[in-house]
Write a structure and sequence with these properties.
Shape: globular
Oligomer: single chain
Strand content: under 5%
Strand order of the largest sheet: 4-3-5-9-8
Helix content: 55-70%
Number of domains: 2
Length: 666
């Protein structure tokens, strides 16, 4: 029988999956574009544009590819390339001096850091092959990450963030005081104690405080861990693009945040990167027992460190397993590889590893105490309640009070800056997302597809579902904000692959435009995003500061001593303490006054609380108060709105004031 026209056509030109994917992505972007008219959300407004632009660039590259691009590629003069490392080191020294002199990472600090970041990325993108020095650039990247994050830790009194006060001020201190892990048997971290044991052991070994022990261990490891992204990327691409992947990851906003807000998520991220590298290594080389042991030990370490990190790790393993099935079943001829792009290798069987990690996770979670039940049962119950009660298409209202407060602030926006800040916060992510889309299109070509790169593609896709897909349906149970730093790892590698693709295929003018976008805009966009500067927000009227001054910390300790730090059972309902968010978390998480909540300050009115604490920061920076309906919102308030004339001031240090019922009125 004769063959049909499709079969004969496929012999002449096999099905180009990358072409189909690019056209399909462009159509999806066109379909998603009108959603902006039904709901107001930054991703709905921007992702379709980013996706469409990436697909158009790839199609342009595909059908107008020039063969001699390398001969006319713009490169820096050798003298400039040789001078830039010195300029970077001088810039890093200036950053240290500036932060110490000003006592905080100010706007001028982030402007200078953006310039230094641009110099680093510029060397990677525009140095000639003869002048390119991967080791020197990696040193600059690590030093940059260390300086930008280390200065925040050095100049900030206490800790940066919210959760860290619980981990350091309660859990770790309990282990130290009792000398055993059983001291936190009531907490979910009892089954995931690696973070607390690390800090405790380091404090004893180095004979330093818990704070210093945390900074000397995890604080130093976090900047160095970006080398794992380079190592993983270098298994797939050349040194230049693997170095670019490391730089993109080191600059990423959420990665910077977990470098200063040092909690189990940070440690879980380090083990996740180690596992990602080991996974790529196993899939790319003829691995040994040592390689697979590193993969296994890294996955177990994640499980024993942090629950959310564990779930993200399982998503990565699921992506790797699905990639294995794709290449074993071989749909659409994906097994026909081009050895000049990715070396052909039989897919690695990961079924045993997936089953082991899922089984161990279920076992550990079933033994983990959480809210008077096991962690596994509580999480499943909470997820089912969320799906049943609040899930719905375009139901993008957040389930967290903090996000709800941000939403309230957005509704009240009246200035151009108010409207631009959410887009500035996401600009770096969107730029990297565009490069990631191009990288994904490149590797779906049947002759470039391989298990390792398909694992990165599927892992990125799955994570984006949790980060952007589920929240669109009102499902926030998976804490999407914790996923970004993990998501940036595969995105950085795929983004580097995407930029390499455009560099080799587009016309010189377009190549320069794309690389300049990453060089000039990406570093500043990531550094000015709110996650990069939680210790001292660049846009202080739009984002709360998650760090405190010496006087604010002293006030918490003094109020705790003055009240005797009563247990929750000893406090009557009318004796609750009220202040702004996030300051209220400091009282409750340090145990100074456990029954502390966000003050209710009606719009244009005054609070009606018996016991209230006011700090002068609330008068000119972004803090949260509840409105009359109990919804959090950013509100600047003076002291008279929290402390009424009929109340007595029982404590003040000039920056913090505590007021209580006056004896004359009782």
């Amino acid at each position: 029988m004769g063959r049909n026209p499709v079969e004969r056509l496929s012999e002449l030109r096999p099905l180009r999956l990358d072409t189909v994917a690019a056209i399909g992505g462009l159509l999806i972007a066109l379909v998603l574009f009108p959603l902006r008219f039904f709901a107001s959300q930054v991703y709905l407004n921007t992702v379709p544009v980013v996706l469409g632009t990436a697909c158009i660039l790839y199609l342009v590259r595909l059908y107008y590819q020039q063969q001699a691009i390398d001969d006319v590629r713009l490169t820096l003069p050798s003298r400039v390339t040789m001078a830039l490392p010195t300029a970077v080191l001088l810039g890093l020294a200036a950053l240290v001096v500036l932060a110490v002199h000003q006592g905080a990472r100010t706007i001028s600090f982030f402007v200078l850091a953006s310039v230094v970041g641009t110099l680093v990325v510029g060397q990677i993108c525009f140095a000639s092959d003869r002048d390119f020095n991967a080791r020197l650039l990696l040193l600059q990247i690590v030093l940059f990450a260390l300086v930008v994050r280390g200065t925040a830790l050095y100049v900030t009194p206490g800790f940066i963030g919210i959760d860290v006060w619980t981990h350091m001020g309660e859990l770790t201190e309990q282990i130290v005081s009792e000398g055993r892990v059983g001291a936190i048997s009531h907490d979910k971290h009892y089954a995931s104690p690696f973070y607390h044991l690390l800090v405790t052991a380091s404090s004893m070994l180095f004979d330093v405080s818990l704070r210093s022990a945390l900074y000397l261990t995890l604080g130093l490891v976090m900047p160095i861990s970006v080398l794992l992204v380079y190592a993983g990327g270098n298994l797939l691409v050349s040194q230049r693009w693997a170095t670019l992947a490391a730089a993109l990851y080191a600059l990423a906003s959420h990665v910077s945040m977990w470098g200063v807000h040092l909690i189990p998520t940070s440690m879980g991220l380090v083990f996740f990167l180690a596992m990602l590298y080991a996974l790529l290594r196993v899939m790319r080389i003829e691995y040994t027992t040592r390689d697979f042991s590193l993969l296994l030990l890294s996955s177990v370490a994640v499980i024993l460190t942090h629950q959310v990190s564990t779930f993200i790790m399982l998503v990565l393993l699921l992506a790797a397993f699905v990639a294995q099935l794709v290449f074993e079943i071989g749909p659409l001829g994906l097994t026909r590889l081009d050895a000049s792009v990715f070396r052909t290798k039989k897919p690695v069987n990961l079924l045993g590893l997936v089953v082991f990690n899922v089984g161990l996770t279920i076992f550990v979670w079933s033994l983990t105490p959480y809210r008077d039940d096991s962690f596994l049962e509580t999480v499943l119950r909470y997820f089912s309640e969320t799906v049943r009660e609040s899930a719905g298409f375009l139901n993008i209202a957040s389930g967290s009070s903090g996000d709800a407060a941000e939403g309230g602030a957005a509704e009240a926006a009246t200035t151009l800056l108010d409207e631009l800040v959410p887009y500035i916060d996401e600009l770096g992510f969107l730029i990297l997302l565009g490069a990631t889309f191009v990288g994904c299109l490149y590797i779906v070509h049947r002759r470039r597809a391989e298990q390792s790169v398909f694992t990165l593609l599927l892992a990125t896709a799955f994570m984006l579902v949790f980060v952007m897909g589920f929240p669109m349906f009102g499902i926030h149970s998976f804490i999407p904000n914790r996923w970004f730093a993990f998501l940036y790892a595969p995105m950085a590698i795929l983004g580097a692959i995407g930029l390499r693709t455009l560099d080799r295929g587009l016309a010189p003018a377009l190549v320069v435009a794309v690389l300049l976008l990453f060089t000039l805009v990406y570093p500043g966009a990531m550094l000015f995003a709110t996650e990069s500067n939680i210790d001292n927000p660049v846009f202080e009227e739009h984002h709360e500061q998650l760090a405190y001054t010496e006087s604010e910390l002293a006030a918490v300790g003094s109020i705790g001593e003055m009240t005797g730090s009563p247990d929750g059972d000893e406090i009557r309902p009318d004796q609750g303490l009220y202040t702004d968010h996030p300051y209220q978390t400091l009282f409750s998480r340090t145990g100074a006054y456990p029954s502390t909540d966000i003050a209710t300050v009606p719009e244009g009115g005054t609070a009606d609380h018996n016991y209230a604490v006011y700090r002068t920061t609330a008068a000119n920076e972004a803090v949260y108060f509840n409105n009359a309906d109990g919804q959090g919102r950013i509100e600047q308030a003076t002291v008279d709105r929290l402390c009424r004339p009929d109340q007595a001031t029982v404590y003040t240090n000039g920056d913090v004031t505590m007021c209580t019922p006056s004896p004359a009125t009782e």
